[in-house]
Amino acid sequence: MSARVRRFRILTVAACAGVAACGGSPSQPSAPAAATSVPSSLPPFAIEMPIAPGDGATVAYGIWPYGVHGGGHGLDGHPGFDLEYRTGASVLAAADGLVDSVTPDAHDPSRRVVHLKHARDRGTYLTDYSNLIAVPDRVVPGATVTHGEALGVAGAFADGRSAMIHFQVGDPTHLENGQIIASPAGYVSGPARALLDDLWRTSAYRAEICEPFLTNSRAQGFPFARTWTRQSGNGPATIDVTCVSDGGDVAYVMSSGDGQMESGTVVVGWSTRPTTADFRSSSGPTRLAVYDIVSETMRLALGGPGAPRPASLDAAAVYTTR
Predict the structure, then answer these.
(1) What residues have CB less than 8 Å from 138, skipping those under 6 apart?
(2) Superfamily name and number for 35-209
């Protein structure tokens, strides 16, 4: 999955006063000036989604969220959203602003990264859009763009069934992992939130069982442990899962609540809908399951030891986590 995950303009902030970085480079440009240099009469920063309603896809993952440590980000966590588009769909500017630069995509020089900057009440914010093709001639450094304006077309996956971009937000007042990068979810406007929620409800990705949120902490690292607790339906009282490495096995422990336990490893089929899971017990037959996770809630239809996989989520138990 690492080839699909894009990471651009990682703004490292040096150890100096204030929230602005001390310097940068062509691939790591300087952070914007401190918020006090911008007039307070400017509006607060808010974004629309860079994708139009109906242009999303779930052939791969839908949304690969912020902070997830899979897909080549085992040490630093994913610094944005990977958004999946239908093939040929336009990528839209998330806010009014200026084109800062248009640069080749480091993963494929035939594709482009469009960097926008946005002067707002607390400083100059940044949005980056990676893996673009067909960038219009008008999108050049210094050009003004308005929210909803097409910046290009999302670059397709190799099989051509869908496309994706990496979308990233830089906030001059937010520092995480030494970078002025923040989850896009915290800036989405009210009207655009419904679209984000719709896309998120249909998303699935490999690390979802351990890092299930739209915004996960980039500061954490492997191993990740999470407890899912049954709220309704039939099944184990709790399921503890541990993701030990990027792409590695996921360990599990199921507890019935009366002291009986089962442990082993779980293999996730995250590219199918609903997601499949094979709970391979260390002491007995495998349990086959299907599940769907949306943030803190999981619906899980779990078959018995050696039984066929449930055909749907109709009789699923509901689990939650924190």
Answers:
(1) none
(2) Glucose Permease (Domain IIA) (2.70.70.10)
